Amino acid sequence: MSTPTALVAVANGSEDLETVAIVNVLRRAGVHVTVASVEDSTTITGARGMRIIADALLADVAGRDFDLIALPGGMPGAERLRDSPALIDMLRKQDGRGALFGAICASPGVVLGSHGLVGARMATVYPGFEKLLPAGSVQDAPVVRAGNLITSRGPGTAIAFGLALVEALCGPDKAAQVAAGMLVSL
């Protein structure tokens, strides 16, 4: 079996903790993660001031297929992700081929909801952003998986979100192994 691949898209204003947690947990599972900036530079400044150096510009990886595309939240990062035509095109193709994609915090509403990418599936989102999701789709849970879509609520659920992504990509045994190594209870 080949090594699973993931794209984590980032922007100026992406939530620092969520970005780092997603990338860290996926890499602990052996996933080949590409962090890609939607900005004109690979260096972004997170919502809390952390400087993050992406592996690539999104424009340079837009033609590639990934097993997973994951979006951190944070403001105005989620808006900057929402406003990236290349990212939205990748997300539409990802969903169209039934491949995994996920978002946390504001991004399920601001990015996915704004572009009709939640559809009839259940999702969760940071409190106050529920109105950006389709009526009746919001579930009050730390992490929600609905088919190929995985969503989560915010910084405090970022590790659980990362582990849910690992489980979806690599299976429950790998997720349990990574959780145990991090001293996290599943």
Question: Mind explaining what this structure looks like?
Answer:
- The protein is α/β, with parallel strands linked by helices.
- The protein has one domain: Rossmann fold.
- The chain is built from 7 helices and 9 strands.
- The strands form 2 sheets. A 7-stranded mixed beta sheet has the order 5-2-1-6-7-9-8, with helices on both faces. The protein has a two-stranded antiparallel ribbon with strand order 3-4.
- α1 packs parallel to α6 and α6 packs antiparallel against α7.
- The longest helix is centred in the first third of the chain and has 13 residues.
- It starts with a strand and ends in a 5-residue tail after the last helix.
Radius of gyration: 15 Å
Distance between termini?
Answer: 25 Å
Spell out the CATH superfamily: Class I glutamine amidotransferase (GATase) domain
Q: How many β-strand runs? A: 9
Question: Biggest sheet, in brief?
Answer: 7 strands, mixed
CATH fold assignment: Rossmann fold
In helices, the fraction of residues equals 25-40%
Q: Give the helix/strand class.
A: alpha/beta
Q: Report low-confidence residues grouped into runs of 5 or more.
A: none
